[in-house]
Amino acid sequence: MPTFTAPDGTRLAYRTHGDGEPLLCVPGGPADSAYLGDLGGLPAHRRLIVLDLRGTGRSAIPADTSSYRCDRLVEDIEALRSHLGLARADLLAHSAGANPAAQYLARHPDRVHRLALITPGSRAVGIAVTGEARRAVAMLRKDEPWFPTAFAALEAITEGTGSDWEAVSPFFHGRWDAAARRHQEASRPDNEEAVALFAAEGAFDPPATRAALAGCGTAVLLLAGEFDVNSPPRSVAESAELFPGATYVVQRGAGHYPWLDDAERFVETVAAFLA
């Protein structure tokens, strides 16, 4: 697995899939990027450069763990772009990875050609996901056999009386089958400190980020999953309004990992945008 050095000296790893024009991919979590796989076959169109965030996968644990903070991850993305010798990069970010990606665009708009945000987190732009939005999406699955248990856990989380995200797992997938169960297990963050410090004080400055994004002319895709309680379509649509001329798409029948639920449709949407 190839590596490069971040500005603070931390050794970071990345993996590649396919050939052609590079697409820098930022995972969510923070978690081992292996859960992204090959994004449903996207390497048929682009060469994926998939970053392991610091302290995850094969990237080193930093000497200064405060560097796990979201805004400080921005310079890891910039270091990867520089390492690859790209004047401008196409970026794809999933889930929580959309936060440093949005901050990267705000800080370095001239270095981003296109940005695809897949079922994106929105803390960097100050958009909170409400319990009402989660419930509305969850109710679309009321006829599923696992619904009563999963919905009770979701209600407890929403009301602040529970924290059993494992029980809510079926809501993250368009189909709760054996493959989804395996993927859910593989996508679980493995560095609790990185997760805890990702949103530490100072990680986000939504007014500044919004102001910077409002002046960007970069092409941006925001893709939501119809069934995603983590990043409900309503919240993703609200985020899309912050990017001038953004493309907003809802993938029907998909959860938080749309390349698993319908790889063909996902790849078709993303490849067309990047083209």
CATH topology call: Rossmann fold
Number of H/I helices: 11
Radius of gyration: 18 Å
* Order of neighbouring strands in the sheet with most strands: 1-2-4-3-5-6-7-8
Instruction: Return residue spans where pLDDT drops below 50 for at least 5 consecutive residues.
Output: none
The averaged pLDDT comes out at: 95
What global shape is seen?
globular
Strand-pairing-aware structural class: alpha/beta
The CATH architecture can be named as 3-Layer(aba) Sandwich
- Say what oligomer this is: single chain
The fraction of residues assigned to DSSP E strands is: 15-25%
Query: Helix fraction?
Result: 25-40%
Domains counted in the coordinates: how many? 1
Notable characteristics:
single chain, 275 residues, alpha/beta, Rossmann fold, 8-stranded mixed beta sheet, 11 helices
Describe the fold and architecture.
This protein is α/β, with parallel strands linked by helices and 275 residues long. The chain has one domain (3-274): Alpha/Beta hydrolase fold, catalytic domain (Rossmann fold). 36% of the residues lie in helices and 16% in strands. It contains 11 helices and 8 strands. It has helices spanning 70-84, 98-107, 131-138, 147-159, 165-168, 178-186, 192-198, 206-214, 233-240, 258-261, 263-274; strands spanning 3-5, 11-17, 22-26, 47-51, 89-94, 112-118, 219-225, 247-251. Strands 1-2-4-3-5-6-7-8 form an 8-stranded mixed beta sheet, with helices on both faces. Helix 1 (70-84) crosses helix 2 and helix 2 (98-107) crosses helix 8 (206-214). The protein is globular, with a radius of gyration of 18 Å. The model has no long low-confidence stretch (mean pLDDT 95).
